[in-house]
Each structure stands twice: as structure tokens, then as C-alpha cells.
Amino acid sequence: MQSVPRSLPNILITGTPGVGKSTICKMLSERTKFIWREVSKLAEEYNCLDEYDPEYQCPFLNEDKLLDVMEGMMVKGGNIVDYHGSEFFPERWFDGVFVIRTSNTTLYDRLKERGYSGKKLEDNIQCEIFETLLEEAQSSYKPEIVKELQNDTQEQLLTNIDTIVEWIERWKENNL
User: According to the UniProt record, where is the region NMPbind (predicted)?
Assistant: First the structure.
């Protein structure tokens, strides 16, 4: 399917829970005036959640229903999509994919603070150790649009925001 030319790029911010995706998305949205699309909130708002997973203490996402809901939102561009997964989104939606990473120690502390424990905590730490979400993004999108950003400190957070804003400006220069 041929994509419609956009005047603004769509970007995906992905990574293991706890790496700082939402913080980055909130700050980016404020700086760029792009629309922050929190997939978990969209899924709740549009009833795209299925039965509850007792092991991970969260509902399953109905990906097909969510994609139907989001399709119209993505056409014009100017979206920042925030989600830990990336492989089920259509490749045509995104001009840039930013995989946020953090050290295991930092991630452990952040997830413990959120109340994660047991299998959910262990699986998320292992997900980061084995670069699962980085590999998922790299296998789902063209390599030139996937960028990995380290996000352990406040300084790195601010640098990451600047990096993405600069990327958006370059995209606009090259595509308008």
C-alpha cells in the first residue's frame, strides 16, 4: 500500500517498560506540538483490551482492533507513538523509530518503584539484557530509520529529546 505524503513525520518511541518512554514522549510532545499517542491509553479508551493475563497482571491487547482505531490518526503525521512493542504496527506508519535503552540497575530500580515483582520484573529485566525490543524494531523497520538511545540520566534524557527534535527538523527539511 502506497503511503500518503505527510507534512510531518510519525515517530515510534519503543523500549522495555521503565526505560523512560513516557517521559521522553511527554517532553517531545510539549516541544514539537506533535500528538502523543499512548498506546496503552488508546487501548483502554477504545476498548481494545481482551481478557486479563494473571501472570503479568494486565489485560491482553487486541492488536487488530487497536490498529483499526489508530489508522486514521496516523495519516497526517505529527504523531509520537509510545509503546513497548513495535512489530505489529504497519511499517508505513513510521518515519523514525527510537528504541530507548537503560542500564539494568537503573531499570531494576525504576520497575521496583512501580511495584513490579516476580516474573514480571525478571522478564522485563531479561528483555532489556537480551535487547529484545531493539531487535524487534530492527527486524520490523528499515535499518536507517531505527535509532537506539541510552536513557539512564537526566543529562541523557535532555540529549535524547534534542536528538529527536533535531531528527524531526532534518526530516522536515528533506521531505517538504
Answer: 38-61
